[in-house]
Amino acid sequence: MATKRNPEPARALLARAGVRMTRVIHTKNFQELFKRYRRPGDLAFATLFFALSIGLLICLPSQTDWVKRTKTFAQPAFWPMISIALMAVFSMFHLLGSLVSERIEGRWLEVWQWIRSLEYALWFMAYVMLVPVIGYLPATIAFTCVLALRLGYRGWRWMLICTVFSIAVVVLFKSFLQVKIPAGLIYEAAPAPFRAILMTYF
Amino acid sequence: MDMLISGAEMLMRFDVLLALLIGSVGGVIIGAIPGVGPAVAIAILLPATFAMPPLVGLTMLLGIYGSSMFGGSLPAILINTPGTAVNALTTYDGHPMTKKGEALRALGLAYGASFFGGILSIIALILLSPVLAKIAPMFGSREIFLAALLGIVLVIIAHRGQTFAAGMLAAFGIFLHTVGLEPVKYTMRFTFGMDWLNSGFDLIVVVLGLFALSQAFLLLIEPESAPQTQRIEGSMGRAMMGVLRHKRVASVAAGFGVLMGMIPGVGEFTAQFLSYTYAQKTSKDPDLFGKGSPEGLIASEAANNAVPAAAMIPLLALGIPGEALTAMMLSVFYVHNVIPGPQLFQSKLDFVYALYIAMILLNIIVVVFMLISSNWLLKIIRIPTRFLGLMILVLSFVGVYSLRNSIVDCAIAAGFGVLGLILKRQNLPVVPIVLGMVLGGIMETKLRSAMARVKVPIDFFDRPIAAILGLAIICLIIGHFIGLYRERQNREPDSDHDMHDTFQR
Prior knowledge:
The complex is a heterodimer.
Chain A: H1 7-34, H2 42-63, H3 78-100, H4 107-134, H5 136-151, H6 156-176, H7 192-201
Helix pairs in contact in A: 1-3, 2-3, 4-5, 5-6
Chain B: H1 2-11, H2 14-32, H3 37-49, H4 54-79, H5 88-99, H6 103-135, H7 141-157, H8 163-178, E1 180-181, E2 188-189, H9 203-221, H10 236-241, H11 247-262, H12 268-282, H13 294-318, H14 324-335, H15 342-347, H16 349-380, H17 385-404, H18 407-425, H19 431-451, H20 464-490
Antiparallel strand pairs in B: 1-2
Helix pairs in contact in B: 1-16, 2-4, 2-16, 3-4, 3-9, 3-14, 3-17, 4-5, 4-6, 4-13, 4-14, 4-16, 5-6, 5-13, 6-11, 6-13, 6-16, 7-8, 7-19, 7-20, 8-19, 9-17, 9-18, 11-12, 11-13, 12-13, 17-18
């Protein structure tokens, strides 16, 4: 037997559905407002940057001074305060955009690529440490040859290219343009006639 | 006219002409190698130019800046890989032309359009310089502060779709500038008690890290590639003349280049976008755009090559760099105690003209070089990418270490190198950090001196230029939100974010 519908609950049901739908639409719009183009690892970077901003914000009172009898805009803390506040606000929205967007696979693979770059930062620092000790030219030849081997460029041809490139760079910058690069400690041990030439040009 | 002749005389020195030649030819080669770009080259060469006289150093850097885009069009057209970021649009029509067997024509049109855009913009600016010399003195502290603020606002909103990222990175740049000993009250800011932070972050160290080292790291961690190319046969000179059949598009594109180049924080991408849109809308064959249209190619190349000369305007007239490359050049001025700004246009107009004539000469040198060297350049662009990374690493060392012989500087640069790599892999812009650092410094100094004469806030805008600049900032911000609202109403899809690949600039 068919039951007669009670109009009141139906209206209430519709109203409830309407509210829910409005909520869905609002949520969708809110999400779309912040959705943006991203690449894998976006969330990791956004989180790190936001954490940096908050960290700096916390340090602001201890790392800057508020000087007496000085107007606000001339305070030493004024520009750090403005910049960190902007960093925090913008990075918060950037993070929000990342959180409400769909997940992209490969986040940790991307973070691994960032970590991999540290290896070459260390290679660079090793080169920096080596120059004042063994001299610019020997350090550059050693660095290019060893790193070329690490990168998979094997054989005498690549070693020759590395050596020629190193000599060209040193001659251009140190001998010709006279850029300030200190002489290597081992040049001190060179015979007197060559010492000055080595120290000045190589 | 006397000033123009005096400017030409300044250039007639062996060392200046040699620097111009090296800069121009070097710029083409650097621009042609995908993965290097003018920013890397300028960052590396910057410390070396400090030892040179100002005009020699600046002409060399200008040579690289102005000629790299010529070189960048070569791989863009032949192997669909832009040599510099601003040649990205050139691939849209240039490479399809190559696929249709019109490589020589495409290259000729690109070089011709670049030359046309470059020369036209320099002529426009030489004619404009006396006007600028009159307007520039009207810029006091508050106007320069507002112009710098306008630059920051523009660089943020110009990165549409990445506004929050550009904002946080620009703010980060401003913050970096504040670190260290503050020069007015002599207090320490964010040094955490560490001596090596007392002198703050040097702009060149940061720039070398963000542009050069990051590019080296990026090439070193990515898989190897060495593009294959084929020889170009035929008369390049005749192909270049083809641009004269599209004078209207080339002229309008150069006009957009000049206008957009003069506005800080805008630059090549907007100029290219506007000129490309104009060319397509007024073309008899709009469907060909993106499939090998000569007009599209000309619009892209004429616009991007008109920007460098125009970008020197805010730098020279106000001391405000509009983008990363002019920000780097600003440090050359400071090192030689030549302070760009209103006084420069008043007292050293011949120096300004000398720079413009140098730019005309560099365009001529580059065109002659391109006429004879395209096939030779094709061999250079085949350097394996990981080996290129190694080369950049070695060259970056010269740039960073020769500044102060500081291992700490090298470590800071390496740190920024890693940050730059992350930003590049995320396709986030690097330029806002550099502009934030430079413009942040300008804003801090100028606001302090400007506020000394301001009693109530509205006084800040009581001069006409200050009022116009203030109004422009407000209109731009409101316009940005209106644009976003309309975009959402129209449900427009996201624009091509790869156009924000400003990292190679």
